[in-house]
Amino acid sequence: MSSFLLDTHTFIWLSEDDVSLPATLKSMIEEADNVYLSIVSLWEIAIKLNIGKLSLQKSYETIGTEIEFSDIILLPISFIDTVEVSKLPLHHRDPFDRMLVAQAINHSLIIVSQDAQLDAYSIQRLWT
User: Fold this and answer.
1) Residue 37 phi/psi, 5° resolution?
2) For the packed helices 23-31 and 8-15, what is the interaxial angle rounded to 10 degrees?
3) What is the pTM of this model?
4) Closest-CA residue to 84 (of 69, 53, 63, 106)
5) Pick from 121, 114, 48, 107: which is nearest to 76 by CA?
6) Residue 55 backbone phi and psi in degrees, to 5
7) Could you give the CA distance from residue 53 to residue 83 in angstroms, rounded to a whole number?
């Protein structure tokens, strides 16, 4: 049984059919039993759009509808996730990525991410 947590860039590339997401990985995501997107990724996208560090091919507002009509499961942040973040070593200082690591640990999820810095944590990361 495969359960994936998409990193923010992975979700964007999947959503925009970007060639930066390898075709084999896209197929693995599409065939996975469960695919999660953390609410923290939506928060990150909204912030980066607002400060001009990110642009999307379509409007941010369409993401909600896209998720609703997909098989992607929106993962909320729970108190236990924040507890896990407080215990993580500072291998990675990005607060969004740290929350993804905590959620991957708490929910036994494989993070689909190009970010090799995440390998410093006791999680499974997938990128081919």
Assistant:
1) -125, 120
2) 90
3) 0.95
4) 106
5) 107
6) -135, 150
7) 29
